Amino acid sequence: MATLKLLFVLLLHLLLSCNSQALLPINVWPIPTSVSWPSPIAATISPAFRISAPFANKHLRAAVKRHHRLLFSERYHPIVPPTLPLSPTPLLSLALHITHPLAPLHHGVDESYSLTISSSSGRANLSAATVWGAIRGLESFSQLSWGDPPRIATDLRIADRPVFPHRGLLLDTSRNYYPVEDIMRTIAAMGANKLNVFHWHITDSHSFPLVLPSEPNLAAAGSYGPDMQYSPEDVEKIVDFAMSYGVRVVPEIDTPGHTGSWAGAYPDIVTCANKFWLPNGAGDWANRLASEPGTGQLNPLHPQTYQVLHNVLRDAASLFPDPFFHSGADELIPACWSSDPSILSFLSSGGTLSQLLHLFLSSSHPLLLSLNRTVVYWEDVLLDPAINVSSSLFSPATTILQTWHNGVNNTKRLVSAGYRVIVSSSDFYYLDCGHGDFVGNDSAYDVANDAGTSGESWCGPFKTWQRIYDYDIVEGLTEQERKLVIGGEVALWSEQADGTVVDGRVWPRAAAMAEALWSGNRDENGRKRSATATDRLMDWRHRMVGRGVRAEPIQPRWCRTHPGMCNLNA
């Protein structure tokens, strides 16, 4: 038996020496950029184990407390238990060393860290440039532990940093409401996956759940009810909670489109509000009032529009301290604006719909800049074929554009114009796709006529974790253009989702993007590694479920306990 154990250790040593990204006895997700574990060994964690973090701010203190508690409460039992020799010396301490403890959690902050765990001394060291890198390292440290009583991998070194600085999840809380607890659980899971931007698409035509001090009637009349609103105290709680996970909260107040919910409080400033979205039927798509049920666009010609708008933007900026502010500007529908008499008169006098958008953005964009915000818009603002503005309206230095159409082609068009880009291609990163459509009395779903739809949504099919993992968001770009792609976001639009299903819709597919944007989707030889990631993602999903996140399974459990048997090729 002793001979077999020795052979196992020697074989493991050989594998890890040849390939730093081989499947380890215990793994970290996302896989770190560099792992050195030449002599795999484990140690028990002493009951007196402590984490020292001098100069920690309150968010790091919360993270230290959380991870210390997790080490002894998680009791993680891997599907395939690690078989490692055990050091006689227990792990006694983890010391944090931070070079720049006051660096704020802003875009581009240094999230790198290095971690060493020694079996001989019983001590571990975590070094990071910032608090936020230390939080990333604490997560990796916790994932190296397992068992009851707990033990941890030792005699290893991790050096880790992200490939992309912006790694996010968009959650739409307008179409359906999500309780605060569901949002916080989602953010906690984001932190565990080293995602760092919660893009909160908080308002839309369907509801306005955000309570704003200067405009309380918007939520009073535009939300689904008083129990489905987010108060300023809720926002403060969520933002502060997110920071303890190293997650920024970026609000999106979508304007001037997607604003039907504003009409409850201010009917005069919203065109085509609460009208049937296809007035002439599905056969006349060109004259639709919205791209889905839920009509309404702010009227750029009404003077009260800007009074209300400015109050909304100022209040929202005060609630959300992040330097990024998403202002939407997507899916403007010509017929909605044209249905308003004042706009129709403007068009009859030689004006254009694009001039209306220019007029609107000429008011909102400077205001956001005066609030020290970098403004984010959807790509439509420049690329929509019917209603768009010239790139001369806003500088690439103050504006970021987010893609959702046409894959890498639209990314190429935007970076070629000099803009920084966030990638959210609906062909790869939309988590709501493939669950069918939500409109009623649709004859396409009749059994006799179903062949053309296969029950899919407009952006079907379902985006598998493999498709998400394999997407190269900088494909086809020059080296200089690649530098302008700051990262990506998966998106969960909530026509058919709410807090009851959010875990399974998001996880573990968002984890696939998290690794692709943190350490890449290729191995050291340049090969896509989605095939070799399967077992690791199985393990990580299993661990997430144990932590209270109801992530979907990606294979039968049998596959993990029978290595190679579920592969397509032997």
TrEMBL record:
The active site is at E331. One of its GO terms (cellular component) is membrane. One of its GO terms (molecular function) is beta-N-acetylhexosaminidase activity. It is an enzyme of class 3 (hydrolase). Its EC number is 3.2.1.52. Gene3D superfamilies: Chitobiase/beta-hexosaminidase domain 2-like (3.30.379.10), Glycosidases (3.20.20.80). Keywords: Glycoprotein, Glycosidase, Hydrolase, Signal. It holds the Pfam family Glyco_hydro_20. Residues 28-144 form the Beta-hexosaminidase eukaryotic type N-terminal domain. One of its GO terms (biological process) is glycosaminoglycan metabolic process. It catalyses: Hydrolysis of terminal non-reducing N-acetyl-D-hexosamine residues in N-acetyl-beta-D-hexosaminides. The keyword Signal applies. Residues 164-520 form the Glycoside hydrolase family 20 catalytic domain. Residues 1-22 form the signal peptide. Belongs to the glycosyl hydrolase 20 family. This is Beta-hexosaminidase. It comes from Dioscorea zingiberensis. The lineage of its organism: Eukaryota, Viridiplantae, Streptophyta, Embryophyta, Tracheophyta.
